[in-house]
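Work package 3, deliverable 3.1, input record:
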Amino acid sequence: AQSVTQLGSHVSVSEGALVLLRCNYSSSVPPYLFWYVQYPNQGLQLLLKYTSAATLVKGINGFEAEFKKSETSFHLTKPSAHMSDAAEYFCAVSTYNQGGKLIFGQGTELSVKP
Amino acid sequence: DTEVTQTPKHLVMGMTNKKSLKCEQHMGHRAMYWYKQKAKKPPELMFVYSYEKLSINESVPSRFSPECPNSSLLNLHLHALQPEDSALYLCASSQDAPQSLMAEAFFGQGTRLTVV
């Protein structure tokens, strides 16, 4: 069965610092990987997705992620954190043998200090 | 229009009440989803509709009854809920398989449900 592990339920960075949110997946078939962001009392918004094209994926708001098959990882990065980046971030995996269902990680809460 | 609209935004209901949550999208998506999200937890899939037919029911109790009247609308009928059913209920839509594997799911803002 497919699964996603997000290392660190809470990450705190200073404004302007590098953001690194970790995601590792487990899948016996080629995965499709997603990062979603959720602001308080809001729905989820797609940041970026990996669908077997380029391994370095650029998303919205300056975020990017790199798919590393050898490490089964899909970590999310942003060079310089902004106060508005404070939110909950979810990594998710989808595979054809799961009917396209999204399997979410437990989430990482990002705090940005001024 | 890339919006999924959910109504109401907040709902308080008693355990003997019957209420409905509504979801609407006009993106031509043929897959629609209901998720339940508890505080500080990821969304949990409840139901998937594909081309207006129920394709996935994640063993959800019968007090939750989904309905897809047409390709743009998705309802969730609630009856005899328990306090532990209090949560944020999210609706989402995406293009259907095979595109749904890689096409993004668009989420609504959710309905915050409190059962008293």
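Chain B has a mean pLDDT of 91.
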